[in-house]
Amino acid sequence: MRTPAWWYGNGGLRARLLAPLGLVYGQVTAGRLARGAPYRAGVPVICVGNLDAGGSGKTPVVIALAQRLGARGVEVHVVSRGHGGRLAGPVRVTPSHRAEEVGDEPLLLSAFAPAWVAKDRAAGVQAAEAAGAGAILLDDGFQNPSVAKDLSLVVVDAARGWGNGRAIPAGPLRETVQAGLARADLVVSVGDSAAQEAFTARWGAALRGAPHLRGELRPLPTGMPWQGIRALAFAGIGQPEKFFATLRSLGTDVVATQALDDHQPFTRPLLQRLEADGKRLVAQLVTTEKDAVRLPPEMRTRVLTLPVRLHLDDWGPVDAALDRVLGQSQGESRQP
C-alpha cells in the first residue's frame, strides 16, 4: 500500500480526528517494547530501522553496512522478516527462492551477504549464529523487542522527514520521535542537499544531539549509457517518484511511468500490460534493483535495472560505532 499524502503535510482535519488512535498506537508500541526479555546474541547485532511506515532508504543502508563489515573481514549475515514472503522461516535465502516465498528485499540482500528470513526474529538470529555469523544486520526490527541490539541506526527520508509527527493512523509514525530517538545510536537522513537542509530545519531540535549523518542514494556506475534512452519506468517501492527523478537526472528520456504499490506482486496481466505499453511507446522497460528480483526469470533480460548505492558525507561515526561493537564482542564476554 502507499502511505497517504496527507501524512506528510499538517494532516488537517483527518489527522486531528485520528490523533487519539495515533496516541493509542504509540502507547501499544511502547508497551510492547517494555515487555519481555530480548534474546542476547553471542555476536554483535546491528539494527537498521526507521520510525515511520513507508520507504526511507533502509535497504541501501543495509547493503552499505554489509559491504563495510565484509571489508573488515567480518562474516556478516542479514536477518529480515521477509515482508511479502510466505515462508515463516528461519530459512536461508538462496538463488532458487522466489520473492513470493521470502520477499524481495531478502532476495536482493542475499547478493551481498548470507540472508535469512524469519518471522520470529530471535529464531532467525539464532540460525544465523549457528551458521557462523560473526555479526548480524537486523533489517528493520527497530520496534521489535525480541532481540537485543548492540547498535541501532534509524533511517529517515530527508525530504519527507517524519511527516506530521503523528502516529499511525493519524500520521506515518510507528512510535513517537522522542521515544524512538532515545534508543537510536545514529540517525541517517537520506536525500539531496536541499532535502537535508529542510530536514535539519524541521527536525534538528528533535535530534537532541544524536549523531546525525547525511546520506544520498547515487546511481552505481555500470557503464550503461542512460542518457538518451527512451524509457518506460516502473517501480513498486516506497517512493517511486524518486526513482523516476533519478533516471531523468541521468538524461534518460522517461516517456511514461508506472508507480506501483510497495512490494506489489508482478501479476501476469500487469507484466503483459507493461510490455505492451513499452512496445507501443517504443520504450525500454526500466526498474529498480528491488523490483527486478520480483520479475519472472524469463523477463529479467528484457528489463534494464538502475542500481543505487548509499553515499555518506562522513563515514567516521559509523566506523567508530562499528569499532566499538566489534571490539566489545572480541574483548568482553557477552552475557544475556
UniProtKB/TrEMBL annotation:
It catalyses: a lipid A disaccharide + ATP = a lipid IVA + ADP + H(+). PANTHER family: TETRAACYLDISACCHARIDE 4'-KINASE, TETRAACYLDISACCHARIDE 4'-KINASE, MITOCHONDRIAL-RELATED. One of its GO terms (molecular function) is ATP binding. The lineage of its organism: Bacteria, Pseudomonadati, Pseudomonadota, Alphaproteobacteria, Rhodobacterales. This is Tetraacyldisaccharide 4'-kinase. Its EC number is 2.7.1.130. Belongs to the LpxK family. Transfers the gamma-phosphate of ATP to the 4'-position of a tetraacyldisaccharide 1-phosphate intermediate (termed DS-1-P) to form tetraacyldisaccharide 1,4'-bis-phosphate (lipid IVA). One of its GO terms (biological process) is lipid A biosynthetic process. GO terms for cellular component: plasma membrane. It comes from the Bacteria. Pfam families: LpxK. Pathway: Glycolipid biosynthesis; lipid IV(A) biosynthesis; lipid IV(A) from (3R)-3-hydroxytetradecanoyl-[acyl-carrier-protein] and UDP-N-acetyl-alpha-D-glucosamine: step 6/6. The keyword Lipid biosynthesis applies. ATP binds at residues 52-59. The gene is lpxK. Keywords: ATP-binding, Kinase, Lipid A biosynthesis, Lipid biosynthesis, Lipid metabolism, Nucleotide-binding, Transferase.
